Amino acid sequence: MSKKIFMLLLTLIGALAIFAACGNDQAGDQDVEITLINNKVEIDGALRDFARLYEEMFGVRVNIHSFGGETPYAPSLAALLAGGDEPEIFVFEGMTDFLAAQAGGRVLDMSDQPWVNDTSMEFRYNGRVYGFPVALEGWGLGYNTRILREAGIDPATLTNVNAIRNAFETIDAMRDELGLVSVVSMAAGPGMTWVTGLHGTNAYLSLGLAYEDTRIIDMLNNGQVDEQRLLYFAEYYNLLFQFANPSTMLVGGFDDQIGDFATERTAFIHQGNWIDPVFEEWGVNFEMGYVPHAFLPTNVNGIFVGAPSWYLVNPRSDNHEAALAFLQFMAGSPEGHRYMVVYAGAVPAFYSVPYSPAGPLSRAVTEWSARGAVYAWHQNDMPAGFGMDTLGPIYELMASGAIDAAEFARLFTNAVAALN
Amino acid sequence: MVTFFMFLLPAVLSFVIVIIVPFIFGVYYSFTDWNAMTGGADVNFVGFANYAAVFNDPRFLHSFLVTVAFAVINIIVVNVVAFSLALLVTNKLKLVGLYRAAFFMPHLIGGIILGYIWQFIFNSAITQVGSNLGIGFLATSLLGHSQWALLAIVLVVVWQNAGFFMMIYVAAIQSAPAELIEAAQIDGATYLQRVRNIIMPLVAPAFTVAMFLTLVRSFQQFDVNMALTAGGPAGMFMGQAIPTTELLALNIYNTAFTVRQLAQGQARAVVFFVTLALVALIQVYFNKRKELEM
């Protein structure tokens, strides 16, 4: 009996070995194949369709792996790389990610690629191009056009903190008349620290500065803050919190926050154009737009527009030449343009793309960026997790009323000082 | 002899590959600046720097204290509820099978799903009831207050686990010799006296097992914590803003994967392992002394 099982085991092991050997042999004989690791599950379907089209046209198979939502992108990618996989293309989200990938020898210089001349959103490091912009995203203070009109407020005048405060007070006084639960739809709870700690902090980092100006983010990464600017910023966020619906803000999630705005029960929302698919899903079609997060007493004119993520080509992978061709096709062909805007619903990062996105906030982002009224995205240049994990609880404390703007600024300053 | 080891091999091999090797690597990485993204290319030895940082982080210290508080409350409440339910369903009641199934049912639902369901109950259902009845205390979500948020996690975890531990106690109570209980009954012992002096000593091994498991599970609590409170609400501790219900496992996860300091997370995991192993051994030692030899 035992001998039989022993033989069985041996057979099994032998069989496994043969399978393993086959697997190795086959890889060499196959056609060119590239793998792209995507971090947006929302566009997974559109990306797969595009990959299939590409394979039909050029015979190069493009495998798409999407992580995101329930499987966080960064840990999944780290696990993949640690396991010895070398995908041709993967996504990175800013300087911190870039430096890690560079340290691993996984970034290819793409400065000579034709698409570089067709965008201003490529990722550069020391003057060389390493990142292909996936899309443009933007956010400001979103508003409901009808509610502002009924309250007699011209959104074009909301360019400094005093104008915004007056508008909030006016609308707040008319809350019952307008059928609102609160003026602003805000989220600051534990699962929503990306709204406050990450995107919120970007207002401090870039509002009112030239697009290339990295003064404030450089100071932050050196453990310093601009005290006066930080105080203005803290007071503005306190204002947003004071005019928000406390239960949505403190314990609500993404759907609660968007829900209040989508049902026209708030006049403003602190969210970016990535919420357009939710509006489409819910059949929301009222007019809306963006005003700046104008926390300064002086006038500013712009919303935050940038590439949230870039594709890099990994020189340690087998087929990186094929990967370069794939990216060029995406940026420079009618099929690629249609994929980016019509199917994936993105605001395109390339000048030559003839399409415009359909979502209401994406349209607003396109308008602002067409006017060149844009401020940079620096939040992904902060150390990993700093915005969400370290600053997030400070925002939440101010939202709950436990601390005031001055105390917020002090805790913020201490947290930044600890970075050095 | 060869056959003996060949039989042993699959089990030993999988144990070594899945448990021992990762454990050794984990301990090794906790002394380095490894971060997974650089692919092991340049891992530098940093001595005890990660461990020093662990004990200087107010957030970790708070997380540690909250986990201990959570574990103490949770072990007591889960076992009291489970044992009470077990006594209930070992009586001669009608529909006793239905009760057992019903109490066990929550254990079959995953922690993440439970967390989201209860988050809805705490945030929307209870607040609605509270504001309709004019009870100010219930009108705002309990998850917004740090003490209540911790108790909310306890409530959900008890609801999830009491049925499971009830089954352990039921099995133990049913295997207790009926003649002892009958003899006590004939001698005039009341129900409480029988529970206290006959049943409890007889099921002491079940207490050892159940308390060991609840202890380990309390320390390892992650899924309900993540889905229900995600560590919130925020509070102040040692002059820093921190999430007040971030239990150890979630703290380690956030350190490793949100802040992406994998080596630092590894050091925390080692501290976590040593603490849990010590506490569990002490607990089993004391519980064992209470067990009877039949």
In round numbers, the mean pLDDT of chain B is 90
CATH topology of chain B: MetI-like fold
Radius of gyration of chain A: 24 Å
Overall tally of structural domains of chain B = 1
Q: Helical content of chain B, roughly?
A: over 70%
Biggest interface reads: A-B, 43 and 40 residues
Given the helix and strand composition of chain B, which structural class is it? Answer: mainly alpha
Structural class designation of chain A: alpha/beta
* CATH architecture field of chain B: Orthogonal Bundle
User: What is the CATH superfamily of chain B?
Assistant: MetI-like
Strand content of chain B: under 5%
Low-pLDDT stretches of chain A are: 18-29
Please describe the biggest sheet of chain B, giving its number of strands, its sense, and whether it closes into a barrel: 2 strands, antiparallel
Structure overview:
The complex is a heterodimer of chains A (420) and B (294). Chain A is of the alpha/beta class. In chain A, the strands form three sheets. A six-stranded mixed beta sheet of chain A has the order 2-1-3-12-5-4. The model of chain A is unreliable at 18-29 (pLDDT under 50). Chain A contains 18 helices and 13 strands. In chain A, helix 14 crosses helix 15 and helix 17 runs antiparallel to helix 18. Chain B is 74% helix and 3% strand. In chain B, helix 2 crosses helix 13 (262-290) and helix 7 (146-175) packs antiparallel against helix 10. Chain B is globular, with a radius of gyration of 23 Å. Chain B is mainly α and 294 residues long. Chain B has a two-stranded antiparallel sheet with strand order 1-2. Chain B is built from 13 helices and two strands; from the N terminus they run H-H-H-H-H-H-H-H-H-H-H-E-E-H-H. The longest helix of chain B is centred in the first third of the chain and has 32 residues, at 58-89. The chains are: A alpha/beta (420), B mainly alpha (294). The interface between A and B is large, with 43 and 40 residues.
